[in-house]
Design brief:
Blueprint: E1 3-4, H1 5-12, E2 15-17, E3 23-24, E4 26-27, E5 37-40, H2 49-52, E6 57-61, E7 73-77, H3 80-91, E8 100-101, E9 106-107, E10 112-113, E11 118-119, E12 124-125, E13 130-131, E14 136-137, E15 142-143, E16 148-149, E17 154-155, E18 160-161, E19 166-167, E20 172-173, E21 178-179, E22 186-188, E23 194-196, E24 202-205, E25 210-211, E26 216-217, E27 224-227, E28 232-233, E29 238-239, E30 244-245, E31 250-251, E32 256-257, E33 262-263, E34 268-269, E35 274-275, E36 280-281, E37 286-287, E38 292-293, E39 302-304, E40 309-310, H4 311-322, H5 324-343
Parallel strand pairs: 4-5, 5-6, 6-7, 8-11, 9-12, 10-13, 11-14, 12-15, 13-16, 14-17, 15-18, 16-19, 17-20, 18-21, 19-24, 20-25, 21-26, 24-27, 25-28, 26-29, 27-30, 28-31, 29-32, 30-33, 31-34, 32-35, 33-36, 34-37, 35-38, 37-39
Antiparallel strand pairs: 1-3, 2-7, 22-23, 39-40
Length: 344
């Protein structure tokens, strides 16, 4: 697959500076790009590569001024980082939808499957399930009774959607995602054992959500666990029963949210964040990596640490922690001095 610089610029609403007919057949990292490759410059610390490497085309900002001549054709755009995502999509042959039902798949007679769908080998669509148009269901996917999957959604191999759960339009669920397994609910008894609490709710995933590989979203005890529109969860995330994750929130790998927590919109959770149950996190909150969120957080906050606290306060705590050994020694010296004084 190849494109000319002119074709790519047209797709990006950019302008060409150089040879518009330069052929491009591969996107490349800026430090590795060579002939036939296209790359982008978004971080100033990588600027030297555009003079050293021999790219066929480079995406740059419209206001970028080169310090010396550049061999490559330049495609000037408003935001190179955003535009490179569009370029990658152009070259992604896997983005071309498949069609048809493969041998070994099973679709219940009462299930409804829309037009233009692909159902891979050994996938199962259960009773009264509803599958929208142009849905891509890869091999070994399970869609449970009365479950729903919206138009243009992709379910990669091994995805499991339990009974009565709903997945919206234009979603991507990567391999091994489990939607609707029982929430972790057990009632302790007097003899120290536990009685299981039936989880009779469901999961609702709204439109344009992406769930990374082996991420799990548990069904609600009652009502719904809700992943609102535009949410992006990385691999190996855990969303417990009755959690609500607000629109356009993103969570990096190994983040876990305990039951009945409410997460606001446009939040950013870095890797390995843990959130306790039954609390609220406001809108536009950023939580640093490996933080432990143990209490409510208001809007527009930046928190870090375990337990998580406002970033400016936590940084002061870090400084004091590094001095603890010296502070302890000073205290011991003071105690010794006071003891000597009392002897006199």
């Amino acid at each position: 697959m190849q494109f000319t610089a002119k074709q790519i610029a047209k797709k990006l609403n950019g302008t060409v500076e150089g040879n518009p007919d330069a052929l491009i057949w591969k996107p490349c990292r800026i430090e590795e790009v060579d002939e036939g490759g296209i790359t982008f410059l978004a971080n100033p610390k990588y600027t030297h590569y555009i003079y050293e490497r021999h790219a066929s085309a480079i995406l740059i900002r419209k206001d970028f001024v080169p310090e010396k001549p550049i061999d490559a054709t330049l495609i000037r755009v408003d935001n190179p980082y955003v535009c490179v995502a569009k370029v990658l999509h152009m070259f992604n042959t896997a983005s071309k939808p498949k069609r048809g039902r493969k041998m070994g798949s099973r679709v219940a007679w009462s299930a409804k499957v829309g037009k233009g769908c692909y159902i891979g080998e050994y996938s199962v669509i259960s009773r009264h399930a509803k599958i929208g148009n142009n849905v891509q269901i890869y091999p070994q996917v399970y869609v449970g009774d009365y479950a729903e999957v919206g138009d243009n959604t992709i379910l990669y191999p091994g995805v499991k959607i339990y009974r009565e759960c709903k997945v919206g339009k234009d979603c991507i669920l990567h391999a091994g995602v489990v939607v609707g397994a029982d929430g972790f609910g057990f009632a302790p008894t007097e003899d120290g054992s536990y009685n299981k609490i039936d989880q009779i709710g469901n999961v609702v995933i709204e439109d344009n959500v992406e769930l990374g590989a082996n991420t799990c979203v548990d069904r609600a005890t009652m009502g719904s666990t809700i992943i609102h529109k535009g949410v992006k969860l990385d691999n190996l995330c855990q969303i417990a029963h009755n959690v609500s994750v607000g629109a356009n929130t993103v969570m990096a790998s190994q983040t876990g949210c305990a039951g009945s927590t409410k997460i606001g919109e446009n939040c950013v959770f870095a890797g390995q964040v843990g959130v306790v149950g039954h609390i609220s996190v406001g809108n536009r909150v950023t939580v640093a990596a490996q933080s432990g969120v143990t209490r409510n957080i208001g809007d527009d906050s930046l928190v870090l640490g375990s337990p998580a606290m406002p970033a400016d306060k936590q940084r002061k705590v870090y400084v004091l922690q590094r001095k603890l050994e010296d502070m302890y020694k000073d205290i011991e010296d003071l105690k010794k001095s006071l003891k000597d004084l009392t002897k006199d």
